[in-house]
Predict the structure.
Amino acid sequence: MSRKRTTRGSGFCPHCGNDSLLECVLAEPWVETTLMNYGGKTEEGPFVWMMSLVRCHTCKGILLYKSNYQGYSEAKFSMADLVWPHSGDLGWPVPENICRIYSKALLIKLRSPDAFAVQIRRALEALCKDRGYSGSLKPMLEALAKAGEIPDTLAKVADILRLVGNEGAHETGAEVSQFQADEIDTFFRALVEYVYIAPHRIGLFEMSRRKALNAID
Ligand SMILES: [Zn+2]
């Protein structure tokens, strides 16, 4: 089933940083196999999403949204998940204060890459504190790496974020370019993925494997 739609909704556009009218160009259902977990029981099954290709009225940029098919309404893009470009919603299991700092940082990424780098440094501090470290950022990051919570490559990534965040905070520091801001964004998300999201996904995968193994016992 393919449906062309022109109805407008509204939402935040990460391309231009505006709250803008959004025009739905195309909406298509998409079936994904997901793992549901209720009351200790796990069940794999199909879940139907509505994928919507949307155009921002302000910058004409294209966005891709994913929403629950049953609750789909073209007037409520603000309630749907923005698949591309990413919305800044890190979501569970990432701690709420890290999500909040990061989503605020993303609002200023386009207009002020320097300020964005400073906010990402703050988010990095919040990540270290959440993992039980205290003090200034450099020793906290060293302790994080030493404890094996992040591998060497990500320790380097974290140190880059720390240094660029420092520069961004000082008038005399080199300016952060748009390309660098994009890379900082990718680096920070890689850290969050490693520290919080990958362990959660491993837990889900193991739940699914246990069910499969029990079935052949
Ligand atoms: Zn836009």
Residues 13, 15-16, 18, 20, 56, 58-59, 61 surround zinc ion (CB under 6 Å). The beta strands are 3-4, 8-13, 18-38, 41-56, 62-68, 81-84. The chain has a mean pLDDT of 87. The CA atoms of residues 10 and 20 lie 6 Å apart.
